[in-house]
Amino acid sequence: DASQDLALASAKTIGVFPNPYYAFNPQETSRLSRFVTFNNLPPNSPVTIRIFNLAGQLVNRIEKNDASQFARWNLLNFSNLPVASGMYIAHIEIPELGHAQVLKLAVIQEGEVLENF
């Protein structure tokens, strides 16, 4: 099927930006809404993105099933806490296309100093 071949070819160009994430993203509207964006995801197809740290621990999971080609990760873990600076692995799975892909992502968080604790 030509449309599936086209979708698979597009899926092979999936990316994440900004990469590296260096303390901010020009699209962010506040310091409290940090995110990176995965692009070239197939529209109207279920996509699962699993984010792992380098120890192999699952940090977060993103489910996308809409008409958009984008999905955002808010740089939070499952406990809604900001992830630490470091390297992360994104495992992207598109079951309808039988496609899986791995991306590397560097996150450098803004330095934060606790003055009162």
**What is the strand arrangement across the widest sheet?**
2-8-7-4-5
Provide the number of structural domains: 1
Name of the CATH superfamily: Macroglobulin (MG2) domain
Strand content: 35-45%
Query: Which value, in Å, is the CA radius of gyration?
Result: 15 Å
Q: pLDDT average, as an integer?
A: 89
Determine the fraction of residues in helical runs and give it as a percent range. under 10%
Helix run count: 1
CATH classification, class level: Mainly Beta
Shape: elongated
**Main sheet properties:** 5 strands, mixed
Count of DSSP strands: 8
> Distance between termini?
61 Å
Low-pLDDT regions: none
Question: Element order, helices and strands?
Answer: HEEEEEEEE
Which class best fits the helix and strand makeup? mainly beta
CATH topology: Immunoglobulin-like
Model description:
The protein is 9% helix and 38% strand. With 117 residues, the chain is mainly beta. A five-stranded mixed sheet has the order 2-8-7-4-5, with no helix packed on it. The N and C termini lie far apart (61 Å).
List keywords for this structure.
elongated, 117 residues, Immunoglobulin-like, five-stranded mixed beta sheet, 9% helix, 1 helix, single chain, mainly beta
Topology:
Layout: H1 2-11, E1 15-17, E2 21-22, E3 36-39, E4 47-53, E5 58-64, E6 71-73, E7 86-94, E8 99-108
Parallel strand pairs: 2-8
Antiparallel strand pairs: 1-3, 3-6, 4-5, 4-7, 7-8
